[in-house]
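FORM 7B - TANDEM STRUCTURE REPORT

SECTION 1: FIRST PROTEIN
SEQUENCE AND TOKENS:
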Amino acid sequence: MEKLKNYIHGEWVEGTGNGIPLYNAVTGEQVAISDTEGLNFEQALDYGRTVGYKNLSSMTFYDRGEMLKKVALYLLERKKKYYELSYKTGATHADSWVDIEGGFGTFFTYSGLAKRMLPNTPFWVDGETQKISANGTFLGTHILTPSEGVSIQINAYNFPVWGMLEKLSTSLLAGVPSIVKPSPFGSYLTNAVFQDMIESGILPEGAVQLVCGEPGNILDYVQDGDSVLFTGSANTGRKLKSLPSVAGNAVRFNMEADSLNCSILGLDAKPGTPEFDLFIKEVRNEMTTKAGQKCTAIRRIIVPEHLLGDVQNALSKALDQTKIGNPLSRETRMGSLVGKQQYDEVVRKVNILKSETELIYDGKHELVDANYDNGAFMSPKLFLNDKPFEKNISHDVEAFGPVSTLMPYKDAEEAAALAKRGKGSLVGSIISHDESFIAETSWKMASQHGRIFVLNRDNAKESTGHGSPLPTLMHGGPGRAGGGEEMGGLNGLHFFLQKTAIQGSPDVLKAITKIYQQGAEKKFSDKHPFQKYFEEVEIGDSLETAGRTVTDADIVNFSNVSWDHFYAHTDATSLTGTIFDKTVAHGYFILSAAAGLFVSGKKGPVIANYGLENCSFFKPVYAGDTITVYLTAKEKINRGVKGRNIPSGVVKWLVEVVNQRDEIVCVATILTLVAKHSPFIDLNVKNMSKILNGLSENTQPNWGKMSPQQMIEHLEHGVLVSLGEPEADKCFTPEEHLEKWQDSLYNHRKMPKDFPAPFLAEDETLLELKHKNLEAAKQSFLDTLKRFSIYYKENPQAEHMNFVFGKLNKEMWELMHKKHFTHHFEQFGLI
């Protein structure tokens, strides 16, 4: 039987022991062996801390985000084989989707967050700058840097893919290398996904390692700077947390343990209401999804005492209709437990529950294309705790399978009290349409819950469900649930980052943080900052504007245009007892006037105003005052751009408005979208002519078989097609891919060197030469390019067919020609 290899120190290594046999949870057949015996864990941790840390921490947050996206896309293309393995763990297609594509989705989510919200630097400035001296020469702020260590991630058996990717999404984005230790059960699926992550070549060396089997003494080698993330039982987690190596070295430890999560049916949710039906459906789903093997599953069903019988009957009927069996069958709605060992453990816990509570539903279902002897199948089991404030077994013992307990309550006070008797839960849900009941119950139970999920008719269609942790929200809970926090958007990164206070002068803080600080040196030049591309803008680039004297007419006109007739702007007789001496200019007029002073009227790389932050008005501006503006580049944020948008970044500009006495009257931060410099040549005939001067009959291509004249005539033919001479009658790209291809015209990625024209046979020559020599071809090409410019000025709405990109308008043709010309000019070494 094949042994699963471990990925340690950059190599695939087999264990040297007998290992643990891993079985198909449906058929009982052996699938693989996991073995970690003989592995050098000390070397593995050292490799992560040195090679892995150096490679990951030197990348920027933005680049790490791009890395996550590339990995997720690579895995998504190979998902079919993961599903085939997932069925062997007992998971249905729906269960597998949550695990596999839910894991990829977490990578995509964190990639998007990084590219929208994180800096293009290896560190992250956290919070605002604090002025800690009277004159502003001494400032303070905080930066976050990757913790200098390795993260050991110990995952549970129920989610072999999502469990790994959920933790890696934050550790990799934070810049911390990781060692993944999945549960042996289902680790053959983790191993398959991990192999592809390595084979993709996207992750830097040392970023991730994999230990498939028992953890051995790996935690003996942790040290200060390392971290441990554990998902599993609370008992095991507490033992690991108290290990001398962990506790004694101040190793960061995050625990996400199983918990006795509850769902509360509102007093208003009687049979016949949408909420009652939603409740039954939600509880059934949470009992049967992954065969109840979810740390977020509903274990305690808290219902109004007068509805106990109704819920029992409705839930029993719903469970009766849930077909159990082989996950490969289309009929199956619930698969098996992950293995016989887990089955025996659930049976043991069920027997403990029986000692104090009554088993009221134990549907012995017939299995679909499977049998109970070979597979780890278990029918759903429903208990009744008729006295939940006296019988504590339901609040203490968790059977980690399709097992839940029904219990009654009288009022919102009791519902919240029962919810909290779980002693700390990952999630509690409330299903009700009574907002008062929801509000009272939720804040009373919140202290013992990591997440509260409210479901009713208003959000049911778009709800993600009680049991689904989301990347943008925290996953974790207090007390029994482990006291840990995972994901939660960017908050999930903080666990892996060291927060450091930085103090110094404005210039020092600007140098360290790469963010302009008020009081730091400004850099003035003749070139207007708005005429610079994103790459050219430097932090501290500044502009001092001319002055503008505010008049009474300005104030009156702005009142009329804006409809802002607040008395301080319009009624000089009403100012007694106010802070104003006379009618005052509107704050937004000052900001608008400032923009009028600092903007550049000439078209340039600035695409649009993107937003406004932290606008404050410090002193009134009256008619007769003269304002001057200082505009300074404060911060640059790289930005991922999709679709038909110009590649760009966000530049934050500090706007300081001063009056004639040099007093600051207004400070704001404006955000602009600034285009990135295109790597493609401009369609300028003079520039093109200079480039072509370097092309002769003897110029050899760097790739391909074209001659110089063939290349020029090929480009001219492309321009003629864009004029409809001749009109291409067909696009060879399939309709379903056309939008994606057209979108690609807008990005800054170059055309691939080996791209074959889809409309040419392999042995077909490009075109029959029509010009007598290269010089004649060059001149004809330049003449045609002039015609192109004139044609689209006269026919701005014209569209013509392209063989690859379909019907293109003026803008698209220009983008296509820029890429195409650059591609072939580079082919011949002209640029």
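SECTION 2: SECOND PROTEIN
SEQUENCE AND TOKENS:
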Amino acid sequence: MNKLGHALKHRLNEDKAVKYPDFEDMWTRIEQAGCNSSGLRGSSAPAGSRRTRNWSKIAAVASLSVLVAAVPVYAAVHYNWGNLLSSNEGIQTALDQNLGQQLGQSITRDGVTLTLRTAIVDENRTVILYSLDVGAHTDTDFWSVKGMTLQGAKERSKEGEYNYEQWDEENKRYNGYFESDWVPGQDTEQVTLAADAVKAVSVQDLELPLDVESMKMQSFPVGREGMQKIEIQPFAQSKDKLLLSSAVTFDDPVNKEGIFPQLVAYNGTTRVTGLSGGTFGEPGDHGEYKMKQYFKTGDITAGQTTFKLEYTKQERNIAGPWSFELKLSKKQMESGTHIQALQLPLETGDTDNTIEKLSVTPTQVRLSIRTEGKSFRRQLPYKKYSLEVSGKTLEGRYFGYSKEDSGLLNLRFERPAGLVIDKSTPITFVGKYKVTIHTEDKAPTLLTNISTEKQTLIREVGGYPVNWTYYMQGKDLYVETGSEDPHFGGINQTHLGENYKNLPGKPVTSNFSGDGNNKAIDVYKDFTGTEASIYMYFYTTDDPDKETRVQLQP
């Protein structure tokens, strides 16, 4: 999963009393894509980069930098982190036990102070808790630290880095969380934590006269923050679900970093809550920023619902480097850590998915699973996973494949307070909701009399009745597939002709394995003719009631 996916999983604005930019609404709808990116049925994966390296420098101003060094000190400062750690219960558990290393280093630049407060380091991860004091603060701006990364004496972290901030109303500053998969190779190691910049943005919007009753592509000029135009096409994906597929064109595709455009809908002054499954930041053929957003049809009323393009605007940029020299140690965590090599199939008879390692630390339980086969098959067949530990259920989070080992994926489980885990503690992995990939259907679906009129034929796929709806819109051929049977998972993508490398359809929808939505739309640009033989790359079937249980220890 990309780093943006990591960062945006977390709630940025828990304090509802403060009117911050609605980054939670803007970005967390890509969480499903980030947490389950291997399960994306189509080839159209969400993209984007959390890190921004090329912010333009603001006018030169004399700046004062102060660095206060500190040696490792154990016992963390008792500090109320509010909701910052709501999705990282294991870190809060460690802090409650006085586990942690006090850092106490600060840099002040242009009136803004970044302070590293506490480090939590074990065999699974390195976490740095920090605060950001920006001085005079307005409720329309949101500050963040950009390009934060950790580098050891020999190498820098290669993956698993993300950070995010949350406003602390009580102390009038931001609280920050940084996590990296990098851990010291020995008990204590000298490292550098650096950030590219500290930045403030505000949310702006532009009203768009979008006609949701028209299924045609609609184009609107923007002329702000380097955005030339936005093209939007509505699709009635079902009687209850509306898809808005859109693309923002920039003067220079490089300048799209940090703008984060999205469509928002309002009924009067009430903001319409979108449905899950949307994606943001997929690159277009010419550098466009593509989005797919879903709304409940009943929430959208033609002539009454207004639409806006919402985006962020840079207000301040305090360039770095913001660099700290640290001496981090994992020694205090060793007593609560054990690592166990395993070689257990995910289920009886499964030779493609093997549980290889269990790693237990005071903050987290991590499970490493080896997957075999072709790349599109390298995904867990079970979409919901948990651990049963001493009568408690720990919900798992999917963190994608290792960059160093493309066949090894990691599941992480936060460790709650009071849960004792040693080598004799019974631990069971539970997988639910099985999704199976099928490639055996090589027969084409013949579409005839293709025209601007929508036509539907029913063809069985894997024993399930599938509706194939096709029509021309302008110069493009659209092919919609779906089934009323919920056990049919969906067709991932289609192509013209027997050779799968030729003429693949471009997915309009973003479909995720195991999301309960089997409806998909592909478009063939500049199609000519009145007939087409459409082939499938693969399709999936869903078994929501299927379960596997694997005893990990003792």
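SECTION 3: OBSERVATIONS ON SECOND PROTEIN
Confidence is low (pLDDT under 50) at residues 1-77.
The CA atoms of residues 196 and 320 lie 5 Å apart.

SECTION 4: SIGNATURE
Preparer initials: ____
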